[in-house]
Design a protein that fits this description.
Layout: E1 6-9, H1 15-24, E2 26-28, H2 36-45, E3 50-53, H3 61-66, E4 73-76, H4 86-91, E5 95-97, H5 104-119, H6 122-130, E6 152-155, H7 159-169, E7 175-178, H8 185-188, E8 192-193, H9 197-200, E9 206-209, H10 221-226, E10 231-235, H11 244-253, E11 256-261, H12 273-276, E12 280-282, H13 291-309
Parallel strand pairs: 1-2, 1-3, 3-4, 4-5, 6-7, 6-9, 7-8, 9-10, 10-11, 11-12
The protein binds glyoxylic acid (GLV).
Residues 55, 78-80, 103, 287-288 line the site of glyoxylic acid.
């Protein structure tokens, strides 16, 4: 038995981290991903000290209330923690850890892939190639719009938003942003701050969502209407930030020319109408999905659990 304590994992541990996890903890690893109730049941029966979960596992207040008293830390292998009722966990003295920083670059790279895929009609062209290049586009057919030089408005100028801005500057895109608080001059750089989302929207030829979930719908029907006609919409943050019916209508009318989406209101059972539209470029929530990043995320989640069970307070703990 590990001196640090007993860890229940909600899914099989990725091969590169398995030895470390089993060497560090008395580790209970399932053969397949578990549901929340199953994790709670095992954690209770085993008097676990810690739980390792992923984005897909909902931990609402009623789940937290049913965790055994032995649990001291829950780590999620995601930067977002809108699937966990953090205040309910804190009220029980349970530390919640996430995986900030290590996924910033991979997610910002995916964001640019979405932008380019949407602007350059990648879905249509990939489908054409999949079908054996049967459609021969004329000189003025299959054209996208230029990304270079377009004005990008970023909603949520945290780590990932700033990394997207850095990449967009490489495309000579002027950067606007809306954030709860204005950034310090060194972080803001040449980006222009808008204290309200409404005041920024009319200037966004590209609108980039990089805000955390759990704050309700930001992109409502009214707000889509405030964009310049033909704007490009990119979301690698959370589907819950968007009224998808309103987005679909905006894509049909041309108010939004195209959308690049990695996240959806319902995952994986996303609204199929989004895929039926020619002017979308969709990915299955792969923002952080590189070997390097996923390995680092899992490692950071384990670091957090190790620190808490060792009597410390990790830097990736979410502060009350
Ligand atoms: C991905 O969406 C994450 O929150 O890590």
């Amino acid at each position: 038995m590990s001196p640090l304590g007993r860890l229940v994992c909600s899914a099989p541990i990725p091969a590169p981290l398995r030895d470390r996890a089993h060497a560090t903890f008395d580790c209970i690893e399932p053969g397949k991903p578990l549901r929340t109730d199953e994790v709670i049941e095992i954690a209770t029966a085993q008097r676990a000290d810690a739980i390792l979960v992923s984005l897909g596992m909902l931990l609402r207040a009623d789940h937290i209330a049913r965790l055994p008293e032995t649990i001291r830390v829950v780590a999620t292998t995601s930067v977002g923690f809108d699937h966990i009722d953090v205040p309910a966990a804190h009220a029980r003295g349970i530390v919640i850890c996430n995986t900030p920083d290590v996924l910033t670059d991979a997610t910002a790279d995916t964001h640019m892939l979405l932008l380019l895929g949407a602007a350059r009609r990648a879905k249509e062209h990939v489908r054409n190639m999949d079908g054996g290049w049967k459609i021969r586009n004329g000189f003025f057919e299959g054209l996208g719009v230029e990304v270079t030089g377009k004005t990008m408005g970023i909603v949520g100028m945290g780590r990932i938003g700033r990394a997207v801005a850095d990449r967009a500057r490489g495309f000579r895109m002027p950067i606007l942003y809306h954030n709860r608080t204005r950034l310090s001059p060194d972080l803001e750089g040449d980006a222009r701050y808008f204290p309200t989302l409404e005041s920024m929207l009319p200037y966004c030829q590209v609108l980039s969502l990089n805000a955390p979930g759990g704050q309700g719908v930001l992109m409502t029907r009214n707000r889509f209407a405030m964009l310049p006609h033909g704007a490009i919409f990119v979301n690698s943050a959370r589907g819950s930030l968007v009224d998808e019916d309103a987005l679909i209508d905006a894509l049909k009318s041309g108010q939004v020319a195209s959308a690049g989406l990695d996240v959806f209101e319902k995952e994986p059972n996303f609204d199929a109408r989004l895929n039926e539209l020619a002017n979308t470029f969709l990915l299955p929530h792969i923002g952080s999905a590189t070997v390097e990043t996923r390995t680092a995320m899992f490692g950071l989640a384990i670091d957090g659990i190790e620190a808490v069970l060792g009597g410390g307070y990790p830097s990736n703990a979410i502060r009350p």
